[in-house]
Amino acid sequence: MPVLPSWLTDPLWDQFTVLLPERPTIDPSHPLGCHRPRISDRIVFDKLLQLLRFGCSYQAIGDTTCSATTIRNRRDEWIRLGLFARLKQIALESYDRIIGLMLDQIAIDGSIIKAPGGGEAAGRSPVDRGKRGMKRSGMTDGYGIPLGRVLAGAHRHDSPLLAPTLNLLDDLGPLPDDITVHLDAGYDSDKTRAELTARNLHGRIALKGEKAPIQASQRWHVERAHAWQNAFHRLACCYECRATVINAFFDLADTIITVRSLLRRAWTTHRWGARPRRRP
């Protein structure tokens, strides 16, 4: 069974292959001209999707078609070229052009996950008996499309991560004049309100000590986005140590979420050659 349906992986690969630089099948610098052929990029791409979805180790996913070392090396090569970040940006631009990002309504919240391997973005988790964990401060639009995230140790409070998370808005191009940021009670402070005022943003912040259902505001969209991301087991329990690698896997997951939402919402309004028979 494929890790993802073909109607989702095929457009992802079609766009990703355009970003790949040309590489010879056999290294021309080899003195004998008989070096082993380069492993197909499609095989490595599929292996990375399996790693993201199942959360297994590189050794477990490596086989006769592609070794664990090749997966790591090709992953690092693509990270240096910025391909994962570029792929995510293209997906967001396509979604904005066809459906439209709801940038007038922004939701931000933090989510703690386990990080047994430690690493650059790990810290003592206050909700897991002091074990190592990682927090991501995620930002979504009004529908729940992931716009970006900031990684930090699990011991970091949500409020100090608000400013670097809002800085991600600068990468989204022209923004609406009137933007409302939806936050939970963890951001209920004068410092948060001053930060939003300095950026000409409106804040809808849940008040501390007042019980209210999460449906009382639109911040549940970011909670749903966290659930979508945690469906990829590599992001629900992170064993990666380098922040660049973690962000690459998050960019790949966010791309999948964005393209899946795009296909689902465009299914009833658009027609194309590879359109799924049923609504995704």
Explained architecture:
The chain has 280 residues and is an alpha/beta fold. The protein has 2 domains: 75 residues, no CATH class; 141 residues, Nucleotidyltransferase, domain 5. It is built from 10 helices and 6 strands, in the order H-H-H-H-H-E-E-E-E-H-E-H-E-H-H-H. Strands 1, 2, 3, 4, 5 and 6 form a 6-stranded mixed β-sheet that branches. A hairpin with a 7-residue loop joins strand 2 and strand 3. Helix 2 packs across helix 4 and helix 5 packs parallel to helix 10. The longest helix has 24 residues.
Summarize the structure.
This protein has 280 residues and is α/β, with parallel strands linked by helices.
Total number of strands? 6
| CATH classification class of the largest domain | Alpha Beta
The H-and-E topology, N to C, reads as HHHHHEEEEHEHEHHH
Contiguous runs where pLDDT drops below 50 for at least 5 residues: none
Name the features:
280 residues; alpha/beta; Nucleotidyltransferase, domain 5; 2 domains; 6-stranded mixed beta sheet; 10 helices; 13% strand; globular
